[in-house]
Amino acid sequence: MKDTIIEIAIAGIVFAYFGYGTVKTIREYRKYKEDAEQYKENHKDAELYRRPAAFTVFIGCVCVLCVVLAIFAGYMTDKQVSYYRIAYIGIAILFAGLIFESIMKRQVYFTEDGFFLDDMSFRYRMIEDFKIRKGMVKNVKIHFADGREMEVPRKVGYEIQNRYDAWKENKKK
Question: Would you say 98 and 21 are in contact if contact means Cβ atoms under 8 Å apart?
Fold first, then answer.
């Protein structure tokens, strides 16, 4: 009985923590979809740039793998099966939220004078510079004139920088 109470408490904590993060990400995704639709309505020339979905598919596969491991945890070990199942399901919930976040971070709507990314609209004239983050993951940090920073996946950052450079060239003409 004592172990059951501990297992329920641990499951409640893990599921509440990861579940809260996933629900929060899904809410952000819904808001992003609404704002993206409104941005497209206001900017008829908006062009969607979408990174390949390989990373998002990979995250989905890991999520499914965690669910499968949770189901078959009893066949892999005979001790503390419930803790393995709690861990696998918690990780699956975490990766489910990451799927939605990955979709948001890998889609950009470009217009002649700016872009829409991650639930926000930016104008090219607000950009100060681009910096590649050091470390294993080489994301691009975009610095804006108002002091804000935004970190985006490398290829998305390069695309924004290319379009920014083209905008600057057109502005000079």
Answer: no
Residue among 131, 113, 106, 122 nearest 168 (CA): 113
Residues 144-161: tens digit of each pLDDT: 998 899 998 888 999 999
What does the alpha-carbon distance between residue 66 and residue 158 come to, in Å, rounded to a whole number? 33
Alpha carbon distance 158, 78 (integer Å): 50
Q: Is 115 helix (H, G, I), strand (E, B) or coil?
A: strand
Structure tokens at 103: 């979709």
Both structure tokens of 65:
């793998």
The per-residue pLDDT for 172 is 79
Helices (H) and strands (E) in the chain, counts: 5, 7
What DSSP letter does each residue of 18-29 carry, written as one string?
HHHHHHHHHHHH
Rg (CA), the chain: 21
